């Protein structure tokens, strides 16, 4: 794949992440219609490199200014999200989420588009997600807990929703280094 090697040699692949307040983060994203294209491969490569550089648990295409229904999440545990190691690295296109019960769990979240903050967000505990990978192969999983939380957070970005918009109690929103001083050394 000479194109991708050329990009890796010639240019930084780490993209700027849009921050809350940018109207592009509030727009719904369009479905991907063409799979296996160089443009889609390049988008995935930029998402991967940007998520790795920022030590994120997930990243959605609109966060780098691309209004397409593409998210990535999981992989190696990070300092920011030690639980992320439980979630396999996944590239998900055109996702559809279906809760499998009414059970909701509150948990702390952060977002690379809301740097320096954490908040407690209610999420469905069990859900099914369906979509496909960047080559158009169907992907369908039933997941729980942190895996389900990450998918809901990332897919919300595709609907123009940031996690503070899901919070029920703004008393549980604050600066990460104040809320979790012991983790501050590893923070952004
Ligand atoms: Ni986010």
Supply the key terms:
188 residues; five-stranded antiparallel beta sheet; three-stranded antiparallel beta sheet; binds nickel (II) ion
Describe the model.
The longest helix is centred in the first third of the chain and has 16 residues, at 38-53. This protein is an alpha+beta fold and 188 residues long. Strand 4 (104-109) and strand 5 (117-124) form a beta hairpin. The radius of gyration is 16 Å and the shape is globular. It has helices at residues 2-10, 38-53, 145-158, 176-179, and strands at residues 58-60, 70-73, 90-99, 104-109, 117-124, 126-132, 138-144, 173-175. It contains four helices and eight strands; from the N terminus they run ααβββββββαβα. Residues 1-10 have low confidence and may be disordered. The chain has one domain (7-187): Alpha-Beta Complex (Peptide Deformylase), CATH 3.90.45.10. The chain has a five-stranded antiparallel sheet, with helices on both faces. Strands 4-5-8 form a three-stranded antiparallel sheet. Bound molecules: nickel (II) ion (NI). Residues 111-113, 153, 157 line the site of nickel (II) ion. Nickel (II) ion is lined by residues 111-113, 153, 157.
| Hetero compounds | nickel (II) ion
Mean pLDDT: 90
- Largest sheet strand order: 1-2-3-6-7
Largest sheet: 5 strands, antiparallel
Model regions low in confidence, pLDDT < 50 over at least 5 residues: 1-10
Helix and strand pattern: HHEEEEEEEHEH
Strand proportion: 25-35%
What's the CATH H-level superfamily name? Peptide deformylase
Structural class: alpha+beta
Binned, the helix content reads 10-25%
Total of helices? 4
By DSSP, the count of extended strands is 8
Domain module tally: 1
For the record, give the distance between the C-alpha atoms at the N and C termini, rounded to a whole number.
Answer: 34 Å
| Gross CATH architecture | Alpha-Beta Complex
From the spread of the alpha carbons, the general shape counts as globular
Under CATH, the topology is which?
Peptide Deformylase
